[in-house]
Amino acid sequence: MNAPAHAPRLDLDALLDDRGTRIIVCCGSGGVGKTTTAAAFALRAAERGRDVVVLTIDPARRLAQSLGLTELDNTPRPVEGIDTGAGGRLHAMMLDMKRTFDDIVVEHADSGRAQQILDNPFYQSLSASFAGTQEYMAMEKLGQLYDKGEWDLIVVDTPPSRSALDFLDAPNRLGSFLDGKFIRVLTAPAKVGGFGGAFKLLAGGVGLVTGALGKLLGSGLLADVQAFVNALDTMFGGFRERAEATYRLLQAKGTSFVVVAAPEPDALREASYFARRLAEEHMPLAGLVLNRVHPQLTDLTPERSLSAAEQLDENPGPQQALASGLLRLHAERVELNRRESKLADRFAAIHPGISLLRLPALAEDVHDLAGLRLVTASADGQVA
């Protein structure tokens, strides 16, 4: 019988200390602790001398709480209370999707056309709720932060999407929407001499389509969509170029992806899928972070623990009952550790060579800097 596969250990400090590492992207399925992991990595890097900004896309605002900030917004804010002895500093921000979209409009359009777009009702709805906009804007903001050059490390907490792949797919999805047939039908009138002349010239084709859409959507909404698209038409190339530039940035040598997963079958299946996708897209994967694991604290086996507990039960008393309960709890903990280890070994067998870092489950939720430091304490070898 083959021995179980064991993944090499991810050296977190080597990753954080490498000045060639400019971007770390924490990704994974929802509910696995990406936000906390991203904040903990950013804090550790800053306290080891890096100039760090961490970007979260978490609407629960847990990052702000854990970093001791009352609020986060689209502007990086300094985090107070960190150890600056090594010369590092830490800023944090939370993505404001609409404001980021507004910034793109202002940057890529002249002032008159930019205001026309910003005031358009369809744009206001699109920028706040269009499927994929949040993921696209996360990548857009990453590109903006990188281009500013104010920090030597950017840590990104990816959106809490149903699929971890949305972060990579969003630029193409939004670009496809803007370049799609529906949009091109709406822009066609403007490209042949204005709305009035266009509807006359295209009465047999586009006119019928827009007439049908007008009945379906309502003439007011259709007019808003047409006005938005015509104003935005000169920006199509800008969206494409920005998306492609950020995509190349994610493939670049200075970027490292970290897949975060809980030691549970569903989360590790998602992590496995994401690892394959990153390989297909030629994006650098630093390793897997297995979050909230339950390490075995002693060498006492569950069999011996249960045997000792049964012996204690034969002589009932307060102290014996307490000791018996602790032994049974230990036995359960060891069994849990074994199950988690088997899952990790299965992942290692499927993805040989991918490094692994186990982060322990903490006794309580992280709500301050001290808690964030505990998250990465295992990087010092304190937890096996």
UniProtKB/TrEMBL annotation:
This is ArsA family ATPase. One of its GO terms (molecular function) is ATP binding. Pfam families: ArsA_ATPase. Residues 21-296 form the ArsA/GET3 Anion-transporting ATPase-like domain.
